[in-house]
Amino acid sequence: MLLRNRNAVIYGGGGAIGSAVARAFARAGARVHLAGRTRGSLDEAAESVRAAGGLADTDQVDALDEAAVDRFTDAVVERAGSLDISFSLISFGEVQGIPLTEISLADFERPVHNAVRAMFLTSRSAARHMIRQKSGVILAFGGYGDPPREHRLGGFQVAFGAMESLRRNLAAELGPHGIRVLTLQTGGVPDTLPENADYRDAVTSEIDGHTLLGRAASLDDVGSVAVFAASDMARSMTATALNITGGSVVD
Q1: How far apart are CA 92 and CA 115, in angstroms?
Q2: Bridge partners for 98 per DSSP
Q3: For residue 20, what is the enclosing H or E element?
Q4: What is the pLDDT of residue 202?
């Protein structure tokens, strides 16, 4: 198992992507510690991990709360012995569908503020423990990429760009301590769309249509790549993004 005896913290662990990554980490042997604001979704995600024979703990934590994040990481290390992987997958509270010339300042800046604050707080807290261990992996989700012109994404894509700048700085400062920092970059994950949404087929077709492979990454794809990125198989990789966009973003 690629992640045997590793302790992985996932913020937003009750969401679609967070729970998929949690299941993949657990299948690879990690003990997952799911953090989020909503107890019900966290418990559901944890049960799906346990039902498959994995180990999962849950804690109600607001990733935007500095003191709460620090208490949580301290508690994980105290009860589990280490903090080996940290992945922030919280929702940003973005507003889409409004032109930049018409969107309010509050709606524009909210996802940028939330994304960068959560990534900074969770990465800093994890890194303080990882430095003592002289090892660890911090994962981010998003990546650079030009949005299709017909999309009105507000501050959403700007948030991803800001996170990439922070990721580069974290990688540079933490690399000498044996800590790797990587981004998983997708061009959208149709599996996260509500199954009964009347726009699901249209949006899925649009996302798939921008790829070179004719399909976007699935939740299983995201989980599998996250396992690889967090494992020793990727031990020489840091300060970069793993492109799983299906070719919608060409490096």
Answers
A1: 6
A2: none
A3: helix 16-27
A4: 82
